[in-house]
Amino acid sequence: MDSGSVDHRRLVFTGSRPHISFLDTENILMTDHPFVQAVTAQTFEAYVLRQSQDVPVLVDFWADWCNPCKMLMPILDQLASEYDGKFLVAKVDTDQERELAATYGIRSLPTVKVFRHGQVVDEFMGALPESSVREIVERHLDRPADQIITKAQDCLDAGNPADAVALLSEALDTDPTYLKLRLSLAQAQIVAGYAQQALDTLSELPANEAMQADVKQIRARAEIAAGGQSEMSAEELMARVEKDPNDLAARLQWGKMLLSEPDKVEDALAVLIEIVRAARNQNEGEQARQCVIQVFESLGSGDPRVGPYRRQLAQALN
Hints:
By secondary structure, the protein is an alpha/beta fold. Helices cover 56% and strands 12% of the residues. The protein is built from 16 helices and 7 strands. The chain has helices spanning 26-29, 44-50, 67-83, 98-103, 130-140, 145-157, 161-174, 179-192, 195-203, 207-210, 213-227, 234-243, 248-258, 265-278, 283-299, 306-317, and strands at residues 10-14, 17-21, 36-38, 57-62, 88-93, 111-116, 119-125. The strands form 2 sheets. It has a 5-stranded mixed β-sheet, with helices on both faces. The protein has a two-stranded antiparallel sheet with strand order 1-2. Strand 4 (57-62), helix 3 and strand 5 form a beta-alpha-beta unit. The two termini are 46 Å apart. The model is unreliable at 1-30 (pLDDT under 50).
């Protein structure tokens, strides 16, 4: 945290380039802005938790001695005005609201947490430039395509993945930069059996979005699904394995195919790790290892199955 003295200056933004003018910093902190409000522990639930049911609420944790906080404030005010109530800003003075800051684990200032439906869904620290703050805001605003995503999910729940793909594909034509929409389409394509199409959908993402954890997770699922496609059925592959346990190609394809069934992921991992153990220096062993890594990515680090099977993979490689 910057504990230096306040120099009573604020950043005034014209376009994308800031210049400094000497203005009373209290004007930043005490404002009649319709979409920006100072909140306390007593008003936090009403202004943040309840209103986040309708729109995103950015909670700005700041302190009077923090100069970076005062650099960020006019950016938040400017964007709140520009978006005209599509999101709200709540300002929490951490010197006055220490318990509230402790509740949300504030370690440095400024910290901004994004609330939606009563939960923290995003956050950032430091005085980010206007373009970066705008990108975070855009990520959580409701868009017309959200209704299509909901309809598509209803189709998936009803067992009609092809209908979901059709709805989402049409919506993507009108809103091609919406990450949530593109990910929803890729997931529907995987369920519908269009794994390669899902990979194509994800390949059009810009580099900064392609490296996000949720994108990598869905891409891994698509790669697994594409790799599990075979001209032979699971029963035929299993029969080949039972006839010749050393048929590593059939065993590998069988393991990949098992991954297409959510309730057989652990069976598939056991098959693939056994291939790694039996053929660590062969092509099938390397393919099985790569597939296991893809499974870990697709499950996410928080899945309780990842740790034990990661240890089994390490043992198979040693």
